Amino acid sequence: MSQGVVSVNVGVLLPVLAPAVGAAVILVADVVLQHLRRAHYVVALASLVVGAVATFAGLGTAAGAARQTLCLPGGGQCMYAGDSVASALQLAALLAAAVTLLLSWPDDRKQSTGGTAVMVSLVLSATAGATAVAGARDLGSWLVAIELATLPTVALVALRGARSAISGAVALLTTSLVSFGLLALAAGLWFTATSSGFITPAAALTVVDDPARRPILVLAVVLFVAGIGFKLSLVPFHAWTPEAYDGAPLPIAAFLAGVSKIAALAALLVVIRAVAPLGAPVLTSIALVAAASMTLGNIMAMRQNGVVRLLAWSTVAQAGWVVMPLATVNSAAVRASGAYLLAYVVATLLAFAVVAALVQTRGAERARDLSAYRGLMRDHPVLGAALGLALLSLAGLPPGVLGLVAKVTALRPVVGSELWLLAVIAAANAVLGVAVYVRWLRALLATPDEQPNGAAAGAGRGVKAHPATLVAVGFAAVSLVLTSISPQLILGMMGS
Amino acid sequence: MVILLIAALAVPAMTGTALIVAGRGAETSNESDANRVSLAASVITAALVVISVIARPSLDAAWLPSLGVRWQFSVDGISAPLLLLTAALSIAVVVHASSHPPHGGSPTLFYGCLQLVEFGALATFLSRDAVIFFLSFEVVLIPMWVLISRFGDSHDLAARADASGRFVLYTVLGSTLMLVGILALVQSAGTGNLDQLARAHGAGMQPHTQVVIAALLLVGLGIKIPLFPLHTWLPPAHTTAPTAGSVLLAAVLLKMGTYGVVRLVIAPLPIGFGTLAPAFGALGVVGILWGGLACLVENDLKRLIAYSSVAHMGFVVLGLSSGTTVGLQAALFANVAHGVVSALLFFLVGGLKERWGSADLATARAALREVSPRLGISLVVGFAASLGLPGLVGFWGEFLAMYSAWSPAPDRPQLFMRVLAAVAVTGTAIAAGYSLRVLRLIWSGDRTSPAHPDAHGGEWSVLAVLVATVLVLGVAPQIVLNSTIKDVAAITAEVSR
User: Fold this and answer.
1) What confidence tens digit (pLDDT) does each residue in A393-405 have?
2) A107 domain-assigned
3) Which of A41, A154, A486, B339 is most exposed, with minimal Cβ within 10 Å?
4) What is the ipTM of this complex?
């Protein structure tokens, strides 16, 4: 490949290409054949599955054994690397997007609201952005990919058209713009410091010993962290999260909690892995942000009575746990962070899927309120058990072994670097987290007889949840059960 | 033989899960069927545990290679008495529940949770991997929470919610701090295997690191023991929990804390524990006094026994802190003794509360001596053992613990430990005071109304077996002491090197 051409390996790029091509096909098909609804979903699911299968080759590979492509001529640097962490995050993003689509599957009993093709293609393009950012190794494609993962979500939130949806979308749009500004500035500083368009350890290493350029690089990294902090809902960049989750349709809230978080962490990991040689100042800022996110997220989640807002604040708290391992210079930290995110995504998607099923059977107003879950364990044993397992996994208590192992994984690098204060704050937050989820769990277990308006409980009876939603619940539940029995499935994907 | 070990864990785990899953939705799930299934499972588990204790198999299989966590289970002298205690009491609570059916939820959920608690406790005592130890520790939490919050005393729902919430939150705080300590220990010692950790005796670890790790572990485990001032979750949890929950909580779950101290702190971190031992012992002694004084004025009988548990566990802590073979032996014996005595007392008090409708001591009722001699004699034996009467099981642990504190290991401050021993002696005097107070209030006298039925059937057989155990172990403590001596000596021989 030395003819001055950038090499392209379609096989390696397939996790990115499949959803992107899917999105294009759907938009074209919508122009040619109007009034298609289910076909769009089928095409989209197929493209996601193709992408997911394509990630298998990169899973569990040893460190450094990345499948690279888009390499510069002359055996130079590559703009795309599909290593084990990137592949695992891509797989999770593609599957999470599939669950989102299942949750929003068109219901024949209802009138079409139009815009099916737009909605599905937006989901696919945001997913393509998420998978692209995981593999991106140069500033240009990294910036484009992370915006591709973000901007469609603004439209997705706004699509419902309700007043709350618009306010959620505006909150999301504003933060996205600020975040993009920070990231663009960070990219500029990075290029100034390293004179390299690549986000790689090699580029950062050239700066480490230069006292003049080093501060610029540190500033660049802090801005990177801040910009991604918006997308990852880290305190103090979290304010949009409850607004957007609550305003968006439920499947889109699940998308924000799943695919968007994966995209954000994937972007962060690209930067963190590049600057590992840089050490302390950046890491301290991550430790602070992690501790603040956990604490504020849990305290606010404890006060919520709406389940979507509760899940939104729980996202803020869990985001703190996700980035906590990154406060250490440790090769295990990146894998720990990725593994924690995947554990969180599996459990959260299951919780959203159950809420979606209840919205369909009981109506949106009631299913979004915590009190509507009283006695769920008796009324819907299967849904109740699935939700209970998801909440226990988020709380990190057996039988939700996956969540517990994820907490062990996340704490390990922190303890290994003897960051005792951070470890103790995390321990205290494990307690606050349990208090958050036990509140919901208590409602699930309560006897329905104790319900004040017992008559209303049966009002939604007879309406069945859409089969696709139940498939989503089943898929997420089976994933959570399997990974709880053998958490190695997730840990192993991250490689060694 | 390994298959038996796996089966001893799998039977309660599978039965528990099956009962909970199968019972869902079945509105008319049959009380006695669930009881029979649960009894069969507990008996089979007990048989498997007995065989495992005799044959001493061990299991070692990979589980999480990325974290270096392995399924490592085996039996040794220190865990054997606790395993037998757990298995025996699991049968006892099921037998007892056959004559005192649970209220508040489906019986399958109740028995399923009992099985899962047994599974978690057995796994804790069997595990030889530090992280698996932590996971097993956590397994008991949710089933116990369900037992308290669903099947507990329904007179005051707010108090029940508070008690169960407090139980979960305190315990999670303790176990997460313990996890931080475990991870630090594993990281700096380079192995998660408890036997290797015990053999290494902290070799190659800085004294400073040892102290930090030991402090984290002691605070974490101290919540479970419970150690003063971290005990405030225990009285409400006991007051609210159903009889079976109280028994398992006092007799099995508290033991996981002191057992953890032996496995995770004393053996692998001798220098760290030596530094903290005087403070640890002092808090134990404060607990002895605090618990005893609370018992002198407490009017709720269940809460009284909960406070007496705090006092008794204080003696265990005192024995542990002495750092001698005698002290560790005393602690492990007192562990078992408290398991038997507190189980006996909670069975009794749970039964009395059901008969009386409350556990308030201030209300005058028929004297047990007059109307229910079986309950009466069990109560007398229980409280006599509780006050440490020689010839009963309570005596040996507390006597030896005070003796060991009087002549502690050479690296302990001798005068300070002797002061602790002297204060602990006054604790036994207080114990005599409150035990006699309770007997005077509810056992003696000649009131015969309102009459209540005496114990019979399942309840009486459980009480009789426990009374017999109190007597047998009181006369022949060497049954337990001989089991533990070899492994205890292996720990302390190195500690006092």
Assistant:
1) 999 988 889 999 9
2) no
3) A486
4) 0.89
